[in-house]
Amino acid sequence: MKVKIMHQVDWRGWDDRKGKVPLLEDQVNEFIADKKIIDIKYSNSISMAANEYAHDTDFNESVLIIYEDEPSTIKQKTFEYVSNDSEINDFTKKHDVIKIEHFGALDDVTTIITYKEDN
User: Fold this and answer.
1) 104: how many CB neighbours lie within 10 A of its CB?
2) How far is the C-alpha of 79 from the C-alpha of 88, rounded, in Å?
3) How far apart are CA 114 and CA 72, in angstroms?
4) Residue 63: burial class (beta carbons within 10 Å; 0-12, 13-18, 19+)
5) SS3 helix, strand, coil % of the chain, rounded to 5?
6) DSSP character for 89?
7) How many angstroms separate the Cα of 79 from the Cα of each of 8, 82, 100, 103?
8) Alpha-carbon distance 76 to 96, whole Å?
9) Given Cys at both, which of 3, 28, 65, 115 links 95, Cβ 3.0 to 4.6 Å?
C-alpha cells in the first residue's frame, strides 16, 4: 500500500485550464489512471486576512490517495510466417505493447511483440 498527497494552492490563477499548472482534479485523474485505488480523501481550507491597508483570501485543496500499483507481467508473443499484418495489428490493439521487433527477410519474417499484462 502506498500514499500520495497532492495540493493545489490559490486556485484563482489556475482555474482556466490553459495555465501551466493543471487543476487538481486533472492531476488526480492522471495519477490514478494505472493504479488500484483503495481510498481518496479530500480536504480544503479557506483563510482570510485583512487590515486597514490590505486584504487577501487563500483557498487550499489537498487530496490524499491511498493506492496499490497494479501488478503486471511482461510477456512476449511470437508471430512467424505472417502473410497478413491484420493478425499483428489486432494483437497490438488489444494489448499494452512495449516493443515490437522483426527478424528475417522478405517472406521469412518473425515478429516478436513484448507487452505488459495486468495480473
Assistant:
1) 11
2) 8
3) 13
4) buried
5) 20, 60, 25
6) H
7) 48, 6, 11, 10
8) 11
9) 115
Q: What is the pLDDT of residue 100?
A: 93
Is residue 23 a contact partner of residue 17, using CB atoms and an 8 Å limit? yes
**Along the 119 residues of the chain, how does pLDDT read in single tens digits?**
899 999 876 555 445 555 555 678 888 998 998 888 999 999 988 888 888 888 887 778 899 999 987 777 889 999 987 667 888 999 999 999 999 998 887 778 889 999 988 76
Residue owning grid cell 516478436: 112
How far is residue 64's CA from residue 42's CA, in Å, rounded to a whole number?
A: 7
The C-alpha cell at 72 is 503486471
Q: How many residues does the chain have?
A: 119
End-to-end CA distance of the chain: 17
Do β-strands 72-80 and 96-105 pair in parallel, antiparallel, or remain unpaired? unpaired
